[in-house]
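Table S2 (text version). Query chain:
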Amino acid sequence: MNLRHLRIAAQGELISLIILLTNLATVHLKSVSSLMGPTHGCAYLFVVVATWRLKQATTVTKATAVIPGIGGLLALRRLDRPHVADQPSEDVIRP
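Corresponding structure-token output:
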């Protein structure tokens, strides 16, 4: 599966959260909150559902996607690296 849509949604989730928190800390415009709140919520739900539907996503990756704001980017980072279970451990004693 192509991760392009998940990458876009994860970045949108983070950007919308930053805008929401900046608005809350500064001028607190109701129009910004009413626009960015649903945007952040939709992006968050898309990231969680898309991650849970991936076959290559482990349980830890799926749990990471649930973290609001940065969960999508952390899940993508886990999906991009090679599987640790496929590589031999350095602790194994070789004859």
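Notes on Table S2: The mean pLDDT is 89. The two ends are 40 Å apart (CA to CA).
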